[in-house]
Design brief:
single chain; 4 helices; disordered C terminus; mainly alpha
C-alpha cells in the first residue's frame, strides 16, 4: 500500500508543520529587498558618475583648448625670435611681441572667471554629495 499525496496538497503539508521554512522564506525576502536597495544605490551612483564624467570631459576639452592656444603662442614666439636673429624685420617682432602681455592678461582673467564658475556650480556640490553617498554605505 502506497501513500499518494496530490501536488496541490503537498506544499500545505510541508509548510504547516515547519516554522523554520517560514523563517527561511522571510530571510530570502529580506535578502532580496537588500539586494534591490543596493542595486538602486548603485544605479543612483552610476547616474551621478555619468553626469559628472560628462562635465569633467567638457572641462578637459576647455583646458586642452587653452593649452593649444599657449602652445601656439610659444611656437609663434620661437618663429619670431628666428626672424629677429636674422635681422629681417625687428619692428614686426616687437609689435607682435608687445601684444602678448595684453593677450595673456585677458587669458588670465578668463581662466580666473572659469575657476570661479567651477567653484560655484551644482557640479561641485554634486561631487560632495557623491562622496557622502560613498562613505555613508
Amino acid at each position: 500500500m502506497s501513500l499518494r499525496v496530490s501536488k496541490a496538497f503537498a506544499p500545505a503539508l510541508h509548510s504547516s508543520g515547519s516554522r523554520g521554512s517560514e523563517l527561511h522564506v522571510k530571510d530570502k525576502l529580506r535578502a532580496l529587498k537588500e539586494r534591490k536597495r543596493e542595486k538602486c544605490e548603485i544605479l543612483y551612483m552610476r547616474e551621478a558618475i555619468e553626469k559628472h564624467s560628462t562635465v569633467v570631459d567638457d572641462h578637459v576639452l576647455n583646458c586642452q583648448a587653452i593649452w593649444n592656444l599657449i602652445n601656439s603662442d610659444i611656437q609663434t614666439i620661437a618663429t619670431q625670435l628666428g626672424i629677429v636673429t636674422s635681422f629681417a624685420n625687428p619692428n614686426l617682432f616687437h609689435k607682435r611681441f608687445s601684444s602678448l602681455p595684453r593677450q595673456y592678461a585677458d587669458l588670465r582673467t578668463a581662466l580666473q572667471n572659469y575657476v570661479n564658475v567651477l567653484a560655484d556650480t551644482e557640479y561641485q556640490r554634486g561631487f560632495n554629495i557623491l562622496r557622502f553617498r560613498w562613505t555613508r554605505t
